[in-house]
Amino acid sequence: MITRRHALYLLSLLLFLGLTGCASWFVDDEPDPVVHLVKVEVVRAKLLEQKFLLHFRIDNPNDSDLNVRSLEYRIHLGDILLTEGEYDNWFSIGPKHSVYVKVPIRTNLWPKVRDLVKMLKNPDQSIPYRLEGELKTGLFIPHDVHLARNGVIIPADLIPEHTQ
After folding, report:
1. Which pLDDT score, from 0 to 100, does residue 76 have?
2. Structural domain of residue 49, as residue ranges?
3. How confident is the model at residue 6 (pLDDT cuts 50, 70, 90)?
4. Are 95 and 60 in contact (CB under 8 A)?
5. 127 within 8 A of 139, measured Cβ to Cβ
6. Residue 78: inside a domain, yes or no?
7. How far apart are the C-alpha atoms of 111 and 17, rounded to whole Å?
8. Distance between CA atoms of 118 and 86, rounded to whole angstroms?
9. For residue 72, what pLDDT band results from cuts at 50, 70 and 90?
10. CA distance linking residue 124 with residue 154, whole number of Å
11. CA angle 4-9-13, nearest 5°?
12. pTM of this prediction exceeds 0.90
């Protein structure tokens, strides 16, 4: 004969086993989207304020729509933090498609100008850059994709009148 205590124990065990199975409903085997910083466009450069447009390309490698809630970013040039911020406009990316996003930023590079001049002294020498941040996706079930991309830029490639 099953006592109340045994019945309660059995019910708790079944609930526990059933709820652990629910966690597997949300496991996503699809690859994460990929974010590229494609271009940095100078809009206006004054002594104490610079305005840029950051051009990002976000690739959706999946077979379903990707809903993006926000993009948090930090961009380092060498050891210098150039800018950080958040683009919080919602948008969707179709399956197997890419979207280009222009993010306006405003910064003051004056306190860092001495270090920047040292890096730009030789325009043919490469300078490492780093993009870090998070891409927040999902509609009802949020999913954060951590970004970490490294690369180098050659300032001479960005200056049109530079002769080689």
Report:
1. 92
2. 31-157
3. low
4. yes
5. no
6. yes
7. 58
8. 29
9. very high
10. 6
11. 150
12. no
Burial classification of residue 81, based on how many CB atoms lie within 10 Å of its CB (0-12 exposed, 13-18 middle, 19 or more buried): middle
Mean pLDDT, the chain, whole residue set: 84
- Are 77 and 119 in contact by the 8 Å Cβ rule? The answer is yes
Q: Which residues contact 156 (CB under 8 A, 6 or more apart)?
A: 123, 124, 162, 164
Q: What is the CATH number of the domain that holds 87?
A: 2.60.40.1820
* Number of separate domains in the chain: 1
> What secondary structure letter does DSSP report for 63?
S
Q: Answer yes or no: is 3 within a domain.
A: no
Helix ranges (H only) for 4-154 are: 4-23, 113-120
* Angstrom distances, CA of residue 131 to CA of 21, 28, 35, 79, 100: 37, 25, 9, 12, 16
9 found inside a domain: no
17-67 residue pLDDT tens: 555 444 444 456 789 999 998 888 889 988 889 999 999 999 999 999 999
Cα(31)–Cα(131) distance, integer angstroms = 20
User: DSSP letters along 122-155, please?
Assistant: STTS-EEEEEEEEEEE-SSS-EEEEEEEEEEE-H
